[in-house]
Design a protein that fits this description.
By secondary structure, this protein is of the alpha+beta class. The chain folds into two domains: about 140 residues, no CATH class; about 100 residues, Immunoglobulin-like. The chain contains seven helices and eight strands, in the order αααααααββββββββ. The protein has an eight-stranded antiparallel sheet. α3 packs across α4. It is rod-shaped, with a radius of gyration of 43 Å. The chain starts with a helix and ends with a strand.
């Protein structure tokens, strides 16, 4: 048996309010001996119900209390009359007792019902808040995955285009592990750079990509290394036989600093 589901069914509150049938009550009391968490829940419900009843108890108005007391305490000086009215007073006394007992029972049941439904409402509200938070988190995760999927698909289409030529760039020193690839579509002129490994520069410096056509260096744009988004779109280049990367002042240069060429294609 799942004890948590059994507790959440409301059986503990119904036991406290005396709303269980004989068989259900017997079964509940047997399970009390088997499951300590059920006994703890019972103690908690009884304590909570008692605190709730005390906090919301209302004393009867003084006038009403006096009238009820007078009904019980009214005496009669005539012995004969007192004897004749003994049966009637007994009937009235029994009637009042039943009325008081019924009122107390109604108070207990209404108090229990108020407490029970309030706690269930509070639990439902907490569950809704939790589910809403989970839903928002799932939406954020989905949007991130969707963005990554679209980016990867776009990069793949560029790489697989038959008109796209791949240019691996290498450092002039063999021991350097810099890795950059340039993807250039000779028909459309679209140029993309894939930075795999490049060291960070000082804040006042920036890498710049150049297309080499004959002896001419054509500016293909500065490179942003702050985020890894796969292929990065550069300036369109109409003609290129090779590619190079230089270190320039931040913002780029119109002409390359050939003393700071860090990578070049074959």
């Amino acid at each position: 048996m799942n004890v948590n589901e059994y507790i959440e069914s409301g059986v503990v509150e119904m036991y406290v309010a005396g709303l269980l049938g004989p068989e259900e009550r017997k079964e509940f009391e047997q399970r009390l001996l088997m499951y300590p968490e059920l006994s703890r829940e019972l103690n908690m419900v009884q304590s909570s119900l008692s605190n709730f009843a005390q906090a919301h108890s209302v004393n009867p108005a003084p006038a009403l209390r006096q009238r009820v007391a007078d009904k019980f305490n009214t005496g009669d000086s005539g012995t004969t009359d007192k004897h004749n009215r003994t049966g009637e007073k007994a009937d009235h006394s029994l009637t009042y007792k039943y009325m008081i007992a019924a009122s107390l029972a109604a108070l207990v049941i209404s108090t229990f019902a108020s407490w029970f439904f309030y706690t269930r409402w509070e639990e439902a509200e907490n569950r809704y808040t939790s589910i809403l938070g989970d839903k928002n988190q799932l939406e954020q995760n989905y949007n991130l995955i969707k963005f990554d999927h679209q980016r990867i698909l776009s990069d793949l289409l560029i790489m697989r285009d038959l008109n796209t030529t791949v240019y691996p760039l290498r450092h002039h020193e063999a021991g350097m592990t810099y890795k950059v690839r340039v993807y250039w579509n000779k028909d459309s002129g679209e140029t993309y750079v894939d930075v795999i490994m490049l060291p960070d520069l000082h804040n006042e410096e920036q890498y710049q990509l150049w297309a080499i056509s004959g002896d001419e260096y054509i500016d293909a744009g500065v490179m942003n290394l702050s985020a890894d988004y796969g292929l990065t779109r550069m300036k369109d280049i109409s003609s290129a036989g090779a590619w190079a990367i230089t270190v320039e002042s931040k913002g780029g240069s119109k002409t390359p600093n050939l003393n700071k060429v860090v990578m070049r294609s074959n």
